[in-house]
Specification:
alpha/beta, Rossmann fold, 2 domains
Amino acid sequence: MYDNICIPTDGSAIAKHAARHGISLAQEFDSTVQVVSVIDERLFAHQFGRPEAAAGAYRSAIETQSTDAVAEIEAMATAAGIETTIDTVAGVPHAVIPAYVDEHDADLIAMGTHGRTGFDRLLLGSVAERVIRTTAVPVLTTGETTDTDASYDDILVPTDGSKPAMNAVEHGMAIASRTNSRLHVLSVVNLPGISSELDEESSIVDLSEQLTDETEGTVLEIAERGRERGLDVSTAIENGTPEEEIIEYATQTAVDLIVMGTRGRTGLQRYLLGSTAAYVVRHSPSPVVTIASDD
């Protein structure tokens, strides 16, 4: 499933944390790793008008940071026995990374949600979310509060039965199979979010029963598929706001990884909203793999 994993880095602690997860998955899937550092050309915009020597020294320092950043991740991957290539490129990070991934046929990106800030920044904090929105490739993200352990015993797959969510289920099952992890299947019935769409002939009780029945059917179907593949599966159905319930479940259950789609149902039957994935990426205590919609 993951033959070539791309690890963007700026040398920050969070980028190195994401790299550890990328390398761990590369070991499990026998993948190659492509390490890349994007030098943000916008950093040099304010150098115009400064003495040429000062501007040159500034660029040289940034380029050295970039080279050192990829070399450090290369050393980590090589020590883990992973075939690795490295690269440094210039441009706007959120635009360069998806294009680079497409050009090099990567099928997973592992990156931090925040990077360097201030004078020496190479990647910006918003890059990860913009990459998630624009790439068709799964993206593993780690944040400032993410556990530093890069092993997986429990994997959470939130689902609403939509095509993007079911696509994410396949990725979650594949990772769980490779890592011998327990699979947690969670579905959240978002009654508060849909109550405003009720018509005169519907009641909140009827709607609750309908959605709960549909949700139970979806969760049981996924659980059965997982067990047929030899996975240890737990199931849960919660009522509430999807993003909050996902984070609460992940925290209470101490899951090691969340795998979810970036889009879900819409309209009367929606359980997960498009903004849910972004919220989870920002607040998750665990790494998150987001799977883009392929519809």
